[in-house]
Amino acid sequence: MSRMTSSPIIVAALVVLTLTMVGASALPLRTQAPGQIAYLDGEGSVWLTDADGGERSQITSREGFTTIAWAPDGRKLALVEGGPLWDELKSLYIVRADGSDLTKVGDGYAPVWSSDSRRISYVTNFTTSEEGSEQELRIFDLEDGSDRVVAKRRWVSGLWPIESLSHSPDDELIAVYVAGLQMEGQLVIVDGEGSTVWQIPDLIYSADSFAWCPDGHYIVYRDSGEPFIGGEDPSLKIVGVETQEVVASLPEAGFCPRWSPDGEKISAFLWREGGAFQVMIVDAQSGELLYRSDQVFGDIWHSRPSWSPDGSRLVFSSSEDGEWDVLVMDEDGTFRSIAKGRYPEAAWCPDGAHLALAVGDQESREVFVVKADGSNLHKVADGRMPRWRPQAVPEPSTRSVCGLPILGSSAALGLVLAGIWASRKGAVS
Asked: What is the pTM of this model?
């Protein structure tokens, strides 16, 4: 091959390389920094917005959804249609993040994704019966479309509905929280076949009052006790799931316990006389009290505290005289208010740098984004229940140039260099 013949090949190869690298740089990311947030509008339709509020897209035109749950890979959402647990029957749907393939899974609620995003656990609707009602625990498989009944039974007495499900971190066990007469309920732990591993005998204050350890070997919960009938006083208990033994029991009955991401600490609220609360941090291994805030806070019943992904901060909300504060506690125990508003909801961005907040009346709420240090608070949408899209790797591209798929820049560079080498070899020969 002559030098003049090889030159056009080299030029063409460089053009392909340029187009390929441009294509690779534009690969669609399921989460672009600083992130995307799914939320519900006032009619219960699902929307997606950038964290800066610049771009919004409607995921569902269908209305009436009340629950949003992202798949861990950020590709799909599980949605529950229907009102309060006692008032309406509910339906479970899944939909792609781009709004396509809205599909009804079944009649039920309380969806929980498996860590690989391939399955969803949920429970069928509850109907009141004097004899007690059965509810089914089901697992829907997104790969083969099967909807398997894992267990069908009266949970505890059958007189009260299942309120929530929670997978162990390895997906091997499912914690089923069954509501009670007032607030206290019970926790039943089952395996993947629906067999009971342990029905915890203690009364657990609420569905928000237990948490898995990140390694899945322990749980922490608030035992409400039975002080009115001469039983035990309330306490915070750390128990082994396999041994069913109490590792630590703290008489300071902490509400809303939360395990830190590294599994070393547990946060909770300590009730004080007069209705005030303090933040407490305990050592997860020994149960030793590590920290108790000097500052006291008002009503925390709907605060839903959560650790930042790196475990350096804790966000929660508190109200006093009808005024709500969203507060962040740093590692050194300092507190700062990052936002104010009625009925706040707060959710951490996957990298922990920002929070999404929803504040306002139940029927008219606004979604804001704020940095973890409280700066740059800005509105991004009208709506509620903000849920950050999980961070994930780029999706493969399906675009092509001259009928050939656009590859990543490394692969493209290899092909181009191989072509140049081949052309030069031909020229020499």
From this structure: 0.82
